[in-house]
Amino acid sequence: MHLDEKIWLTLSFGMIMIFMFITGYQTFALEMGPPSHNETIDPQKVSETPPFDQPGIKKIGENEYEVVMTLQIFSFDPMEIEVPAGATVHFTLTSKDVVHGFQVADTNINAMVMPGHIQKITQTFDKPGEYLVLCNEYCGAGHQLMSTTITVK
Ligand SMILES: [Cu+2]
What we know:
Layout: H1 3-29, E1 56-61, E2 64-72, E3 75-77, E4 80-83, E5 87-95, E6 100-104, E7 110-113, E8 119-125, E9 129-134, E10 147-152
Parallel strand pairs: 2-5, 4-10
Antiparallel strand pairs: 1-2, 2-3, 5-8, 6-7, 6-9, 9-10
């Protein structure tokens, strides 16, 4: 083998080892793994399982709201969400059928909502306006119609 090849092979192998070490260090020493909370639900019985038997928005404190939402082809339930500016909103989401997405434009919210799993996200809406909510996981023929808005007043 040519010397240059040996050098490049050693360098490439070394880099792979370094990257694997960094990933391992982040996972085990810094605990930078994916969220470990794993709440599950029977996707066949979403409509009967609290809190998803009553999707909607609930005031739970001083400018703090809880939104229980189900996602299904091709809609979000509840459709209308309105909160005052500065409100902190705790979203609890699940899917009734296939994998959907929950992305809120102009925020950092961008989550996958999987059948059988409960997704929880908290967001504070400081700026008034209409926030576009989109499903960003291809979920079927009507996927492009799957959107709603969150109104912040
Ligand atoms: Cu969808």
